[in-house]
Amino acid sequence: LSPAEAIEITEARAVLETLIARHAAVKITPPQVAQLKAKLVQIRKIMKSRDLVRYASENMEFHRMIIDIADHSTAAKMLESLSAQSVVSQYRPFLEPGRVEQLLREHERLVAVLASKDPDAAERAMRVHLDNSTAAIGALTKLPGADDGHFGSVC
What we know:
Layout: H1 3-27, H2 30-49, H3 52-70, H4 73-86, H5 99-115, H6 119-140
């Protein structure tokens, strides 16, 4: 993907994932909140070990869990097609100073607002998360090798 395509995909994902977050906030159960929190514990450990491949897998699983909670099949199908295009560079946040820690804080905030069952707050938290991802992609376009076509999502 070119940097411009990566940004466009992240922008499109933001629209769909904010819808997903809204639906998930209404439908989430206490056991699902506990599962998301447990996933964040795993992700924090992986971030400390800087295992890029495992981070990408667990990050995608975290977002997949929210998609499953939302139970919005149309948005899920559309996201799946976008994710397939952006999975190549899930590890890119490790290249942006401070982004890894910011990602975890954004994920923690998202879980907290989902647990509060406030769809407006969930939508806002997801929007902030994905807007920051879009900005991070923009920053990465300035790194050496950014024009080599290997770009993707950083959320």
